[in-house]
Amino acid sequence: MPWIYLLLAGLLEIMFAIGLKHTDGFTRLWPSVATVLAAGASLWLLTQALRTIPLGTAYAIWTGIGAVGVATLGVVLFAESVSPARLGCIALIVTGVIGLKLFSAA
């Protein structure tokens, strides 16, 4: 169950980061509310995962899920660049996240 909490926390981290783009500096009420709720829920789920998963592993995976998700959605939703270097860096993050999962003691 802790790994499911961590996955969900990472997905909510993506929602939080994308939500920041839509808050317009927290001047739009409903996008701001949704963003704050996503951030709070993400942190709560992360704390639940931390009961079992080592801190360094959980935090790295949480931020990795967020970074890869936001970078991917940046390309899809906001027409950000898709250079080979950018894709290679995203692949390195994914490789690191998989490696941490595979070699974690939890």
* Proportion of strand residues: under 5%
Instruction: Please give the alpha-carbon distance between the first and last residues.
Output: 11 Å
Mean pLDDT across the residues is 95
CA-based shape: flat
- What's the total number of strands? 0
Helix content range: over 70%
> SSE string, helix = H, strand = E?
HHHH
Radius of gyration: 15 Å
**Number of spatially distinct domains:** 1
Q: What structural class is derived from the secondary structure elements?
A: mainly alpha
Helix segment tally: 4
Main β-sheet description: none
Low-pLDDT segments, ≥5 res? none
Report on this structure:
The longest helix has 24 residues, at 55-78. It contains four helices and no strands. The chain has helices at residues 2-23, 29-49, 55-78, 84-102. The mean pLDDT is 95. It has 106 residues and is an all-alpha fold. It has one domain (2-102). 81% of the residues lie in helices and 0% in strands.
Features:
106 residues; mainly alpha; 4 helices; 81% helix; flat
List the helices and strands and how they pair.
Layout: H1 2-23, H2 29-49, H3 55-78, H4 84-102
Helix pairs in contact: 1-2, 1-3, 3-4
Concise overview:
The chain is mostly helical and 106 residues long. Helix content is 81%, strand content 0%.
